[in-house]
Amino acid sequence: LQVTVPDPRTVALLFQPVLLRCQFQVGTPGPPPIVTWKYKSFCPSPASGDTWGGPDGAAGGGEAPGTCPDSARTVRIVATKQGDTVTLGDFYRGRAVTIRGGAELSLGPAAWGDSGFYICTVTSTQDLQGNNEAVAELVVLGET
């Protein structure tokens, strides 16, 4: 199993449709894999104490950008897809959100709270080898 995100960073305008691409190859044919997209907010900025550290996350203290414990950020399931059935997480119900094609996440019009990291995870009961997830970063910019 090999999962890749061809565009690891996407910048979108507020209220514009967003498509985060995720591709996978399964080594063994079988039932369709389960695709899950999970959202993680950026790390809080330690200097300002605000809840959004920008695209570089908490880069102070020698940590890599975007690294902080999950307890310091918002983490939620966006959507899952098995076969042709897509199930949305509670936060995304009522929005134009879906998983298209094999594993592309369509967020409809981008909202302020959409900036963050999106993890595409593919679970196959037939293929347990390889890398089953990839990360896409989304930055939503306001209109000027």
TrEMBL record:
InterPro entries recorded: Ig-like_dom (IPR007110), Ig-like_dom_sf (IPR036179), Ig-like_domain-LISCH7 (IPR051874), Ig-like_fold (IPR013783), Ig_sub (IPR003599)
PANTHER family on file: TRANSMEMBRANE AND IMMUNOGLOBULIN DOMAIN-CONTAINING PROTEIN (PTHR15923)
Residues annotated as domain Ig-like: 16-136
Gene that encodes it: Lsr
Domain of life, source organism: Eukaryota
Spans through the membrane: none
Originating organism: Piprites chloris
Cellular component, GO annotation: membrane
UniProt name for this protein: LSR protein
